[in-house]
Design goal:
CATH class of the largest domain: Alpha Beta
CATH architecture of the largest domain: 3-Layer(aba) Sandwich
Distance between the termini: 72 Å
Number of helices: 21
Number of domains: 3
Number of strands: 18
Bound molecules: adenosine-5'-triphosphate, magnesium ion
Shape: elongated
Oligomer: single chain
Strand order of the largest sheet: 11-14-17-10-18
Strand content: 15-25%
Radius of gyration: 28 Å
CATH topology of the largest domain: Rossmann fold
Helix content: 25-40%
CATH superfamily of the largest domain: P-loop containing nucleotide triphosphate hydrolases
Largest sheet: 5 strands, parallel
């Protein structure tokens, strides 16, 4: 009977059960690993052999064959060291096989038998609970991360020797104890809204965007405060629920990018990649696909400053994820889907010199140069932007005034109230914000009265808006009504939503 130990692979963002089977075979003293292992897994043999030497038991003298099943799941990295070592010790009759029946075991071994940090523990622990295992043995540094999954015993393992004595029953390891937070804290942004002078209409647009998860584009001359305004956005974003935080943490966990001081990502991400970013860096990719910036921005903000500089090809790849709120990457080995429900916030100058339309400084660009610049943004991309606002230069009197505006905290409270209304309305739907609604939800929740219908009809004709724009305006009106605490969308709400629509040229 081969020894069987349960372990876990990560495929995309999901943990997949892997069985490590160890059996003796003909010959003397060698180890064969089969079942689609990558090079790092093959190297496990040497680490396992060295690590077992630290336990005061003789290494089995027979040759061993280790099979990682299912064979069609690629096993990456060194996470199978520990289950392999345990399997070998079971084969040698040193650990009872019943000791590992209801456990998942994951971890990389050092040559001295200590256990190293392993990425991706959160999806692995989630898999262990889903499949009904009692517990999971993890590297001690990763115990807090695995313990984010409730109702699962997490055993922090420091060394192979510790696990050996635990499994023989001589010296049990105490499970990791952690009280999970019920509510997450709000974040303090770099700049508080109250410090930003003037630009009241832009702040209002940011509030609407944050309240309904709407995409937004700011257009204005250099130094008007676009970057400053965007960077203040995290301060007014609604706090995440624990489930949202776990979703986000999963992505950072598999990329090994969790902050060292806390296992849970507590704040909505704010990602601001530079415009030189590659296609794969932005949406994800690689031979074994990895999430890109749009997934790192999941449930948060993707800020693309100097929007036209990103290059048309890079921006075009955003079209599908903006629509689907997820990105699918296909490879010969199969396709993987990563979540990418982010709020796109973009900033740009109206022309290469930056002063087109400025009342003070004259623009030095030729008409052709302006057109060329604006054409870098394709129609289909702009059609996915719910809110467009111009950010004019701040008047001197406003800039030098001592009057402080409304603090971010007060705005965030309104945003959170509006989100709560949306969550209740969309209960039962996988979506929770107006900006994410699909057509039948828009039809159900965004009806207009006769007066508003007339206004909409005129506006659509005058502004030349597309069918997508019609839905966009309805969703936006719903958010504006929610911010006002209104049951029905009224003409004032619709009128404000129409103000955020483009008028001809940018
Ligand atoms: N409304 C404002 N209130 C207070 N300070 C401001 C405001 N607008 C701009 N500033 C000041 O000007 C600096 C430059 O602003 P910011 O970088 O946001 O401009 P920008 O619109 O992004 O310009 P560019 O188009 O060149 O990127 C800010 O760091 C801030 O110090
Ligand atoms: Mg800027």
């Amino acid at each position: 009977m081969p020894a069987r130990v349960h372990s876990c692979a990560v495929l995309g963002l999901e943990g997949v059960l892997v069985e490590v089977e160890v059996d003796t075979t003909h010959g003397f003293g060698y180890i064969i690993v089969v079942g689609l292992p990558d090079t790092a897994v093959k190297e496990s043999r040497e680490r396992v052999r060295a690590a077992i030497k630290n336990i005061p038991v003789p290494f089995p003298r027979k040759s061993l064959i280790i099979n990682l099943a299912p064979a069609n799941v690629r096993k990456e990295g060194p996470a199978y060291d520990l289950p392999m070592a345990v399997g070998i010790l079971i084969t040698a009759g040193l650990i009872p096989s019943s000791a590992v029946e209801d456990l998942v075991i994951v971890g990389e071994l050092s040559l001295d038998g200590s256990i190293r940090h392993t990425p991706g523990l959160l999806p692995m622990a989630a898999m262990a609970r889903e499949k009904g295992f009692r517990g999971i043995c993890v590297p001690a540094p990763d115990a807090a991360e695995a313990a984010l999954i409730p109702d699962l015993e997490v055993l922090p393992v420091r060394s192979l020797t510790d696990l050996f004595w635990h499994l023989t029953g001589d010296q049990p390891i105490s499970p990791y104890q952690q009280s999970s937070p019920r509510e997450l804290p709000a974040i303090k942004a770099q700049t508080d809204f109250r410090e930003i002078k003037g630009q009241e209409h832009v702040k209002r647009a940011l509030e609407v965007a944050a309240a309904g998860n709407h995409n937004m584009l700011m257009n204005g001359p250099p130094g008007a405060g676009k970057t400053l305004l965007a960077r203040s956005l995290p301060g007014i974003m609604p706090r995440m629920s624990i489930d949202e935080a776990l979703d986000v943490t999963r992505i950072y966990s598999i990329l090994d990018r969790l902050p060292s001081h806390t296992p849970l990502i507590q704040h909505r991400p704010f990602r601001a990649p530079h415009h030189t970013i590659s296609h794969a860096g932005l949406v994800g990719g690689g031979t074994w696909p990895q999430p890109g910036e749009i997934s790192l921005a999941h449930r948060g903000v993707l800020f693309l400053d100097e929007f036209p500089e990103f290059g048309r090809r890079v921006l075009e790849v955003l079209r599908q994820p903006l629509e689907d709120k997820a990105v699918t990457i296909s490879r010969a080995q199969g396709s993987l889907t990563f979540p990418a429900n982010f709020m796109l916030v973009a900033a740009m100058n109206p022309c290469p010199c930056g002063y087109y339309g400025d009342p003070v400084k004259t623009c030095t660009c030729s008409a052709a140069a302006i057109t060329r610049y604006q054409k870098r943004l394709s129609g289909p991309i702009l059609d996915r932007v719910d809110i467009q606002v111009s950010v004019p230069r701040v008047e001197f009197d406003k800039l030098t005034s001592d009057r402080l505006g409304e603090p971010s905290r007060a705005v965030r409270e309104r945003v959170e109230k509006a989100r709560q209304i949306q969550r209740e309305r969309l209960a039962g739907s996988p979506r929770s914000a107006n900006g994410d609604m699909i057509p039948h939800e828009i039809r159900q929740f965004c009806s207009l009265d006769q007066e508003s219908l007339n206004l909409m009809r005129n506006a659509l004709q005058q502004l030349g808006l597309s069918a997508r724009a019609y839905h966009r305006v309805l969703k936006l009106s719903r958010t504006i009504a929610d911010l006002a605490g209104a049951e029905d969308i009224a003409t004032v709400h619709l009128a404000e939503a129409l103000q955020y629509q483009p008028r001809g040229e940018l």
